[in-house]
Amino acid sequence: MSRENCFVSEIHTYPVKSCAGIALEEASLTPRGIEFDRCFMVVTESLGFMTQREIPKMAQILTRIAGAELLLSAPGQEVLALPLHGGGRNPTPVVMRDSTCMGVDQGPYASSWLTDFLGQYKGENLKLLSFYLPFVREVDPFYTGSDHATTAFSDGFPFLVTSEASLAELNRRILENGGEAVPMNRFRPNIVISGVEPFEEDTISELRFPRSHAALKLAKPCARCVITRTDQTSGQVHRTEPLKTLGQFRVFANQKGERGAMFGQNAYLIRGAGEQIVPQEPVEVLYK
Question: Structural domain boundaries of the chain?
Fold first, then answer.
């Protein structure tokens, strides 16, 4: 089914998990997500993976892609340049939630850079891993069924889809509660769509991009965590919003019965690896 005026309004990639993202004017779709998304991750010396849940200041690390390099910058720090596809050898296993990934240590200078800016975590220095590209990290087959889906260092799915209408409705309720509206970057989406009703994405099965014939499967609602309370510019953590208001009208269980305050849909690619999408291009929706 096609919906008039439904289109892509924003596209983002986040090269380093939990650091600042990059708004894109053109994005390549890969089975692991938007190209370069979550292909690096900060860990402790004992290989505990770090996010803004543990270190909100990670939001202040800016990322930029220049040719074959990933550039990291932060207040008071020199720019750190890294091979975009990761350097080094000898991959190391690191446990993320219920799965194991393979990452490659990006060396002592990257470790010093991160530790200097973010500080130690529970007495441990920090390190930067790149995703070991030959490794295949499967998305939970409970949600993919007969489809084959993979991801890199995301929490579990290669794409997160949100809508402008859902944010507008959330902010309307936050303002009614006496709070301040929040920007979309609090939710760190990969693809934002416009032209649907608030939370209509809950009922969408597929997003199709007619220009390239690519398609995403919307697999499950995304339960939101305390990262949504972190200002993505300053790294300061808000005391309650937007989770307080989400908790008033968006708490329900996913297909596994896991409850959470839901905003956005986790998704994976079912067609069109290597194709490009751009802001303002039309989207067709297929409903459940």
Answer: 7-287
